[in-house]
Amino acid sequence: MTETEMSTPPLARGYPSVASLMGKDGDLAIFRRFSRLNMISLLKLQAELLYLEKEYDEILAGDIQEGADFHANFQNLIASSEGSNSDQLDILIRIKDKVKDYNELLIQVQQIDTFNVPSSHSVSLLREWLRDSRGGRCFLQSTESFTWHADNEPDFVTFGERNRPQDNLTAWLTMALLGLYHRAWGHKGKDGVIFDPESGAIRYYSNKWWDRIGKALTTIMASTLPALVVLALYFENDVLKRIYIMIGVTAVLAMVLSLTTNAKRIEIFAAVATFAAVEIVFIGSVPSHSNSSQVA
């Protein structure tokens, strides 16, 4: 990505500068979804509908008892607006308006849940810019200063591009490599995007290449692990000790896969079972190197 200077007039510091920042890179357009407030609003509307439903049932039962056929003839129900017995029609109109509000909010909340989740790198960059004396200059005050607080991080959404799910190990390795690159070269070179000329040390790097590097390294690590274990088993002469090593390594592998990847339980089981099968075949078919040398 070529270097691009993103500046805002000095007098526009504050929310205008944040808006400019977010407008130029969707990954930094990070907002709260206010899940708790959305849920309480839905619960309130739901409770109101419960009371309207109860009131409607009572009016309906009363009309039936009085011989009105509104429940079976909507034409008469509509015509009741011109008479004195319009309670059932009135309550249905109120229910229609309230159901509309409820359904609209329900759909909106569902759509919000489909928004992209910002990467930890983007969140950290935004916070760094807000704190920097040459960037956001800590302009947020009072309650607004908690907008992007760490406690609210599970509530964040972004307009940035959807990233493919990345396991914890790859994400950590990618961020570690990116941090080393920035400290060693990136801050001196022309890589990345400078969001504010006054705070040029704050740079944003495209995640695409770094994600690929991280995935390549984790793939290499995963591919060479079985060979390294087989090599360790080769140098162990005692068959029983080989089995103990196999059990320990298999257990560690299962734990690592569970903690650092997004794999499902059945996928982890399949990977571990395949790995264990390779170890078992090696233990059962390959003699220790000392014995094989003696035979030769």
From TrEMBL:
Residues 15-278 form the DUF6594 domain. Coiled coil: none annotated. The chain crosses the membrane at residues 216-235, 241-259, 266-286. InterPro entries: DUF6594. This is DUF6594 domain-containing protein. The keyword Transmembrane helix applies. Pfam families: DUF6594 (PF20237). Keywords: Membrane, Transmembrane, Transmembrane helix.
